[in-house]
């Protein structure tokens, strides 16, 4: 793709269908060009479908910025059935991570999302653990660990994936080991695979090795693969995720 300025990257993101979308995103996140943040902020009102992604770029550049810009556009873009369903609640929508609100510390995402991690509705719990995993905040770890014992397999699956995301962001996840090992005994292969992938992290690998001897054949095979570096994929939450 060659050298590309932040202006060129911004234009590429606004095209949305660009095959170099991810590269354009990374250029804007990493750019040190003078005035680049002001350029992105000034482009939001007429950015169309690219607006949520540009909000996320700004959150990646500075997680401590005022969240007003993202919240304002979130509410404008979710007007209608989605907004009525959610009761105008930004923290209960998958759009919360696309807009980068999960990364904006002044939006208090962990505090606002955590109550839904124990909601009676499994869909709420699933969205909550996914969002908490995207916060890169150590405070998100305890409520996520709680959902590794959830009665619904897909919530456990998302909780294990959330542990992996926190670890990628540099959070120490050693306290999740026991609950992740428990997931290796689940009857759903998807849960076993995601838990094994989380336990294959350097900080948890010894726990995975110790657990291997107690597992049934299917789980044992999954763990052997994980120990060999063959891991379940971690689905991307947004196009620029690393």
From TrEMBL:
SUPFAM superfamilies: ARM repeat
Domain of life: Bacteria
SMART domains to which the protein is assigned, alphabetical: EZ_HEAT
Pfam family, one: HEAT_2
Protein name: HEAT repeat-containing protein
Source lineage: Bacteria, Bacillati, Actinomycetota, Actinomycetes, Pseudonocardiales
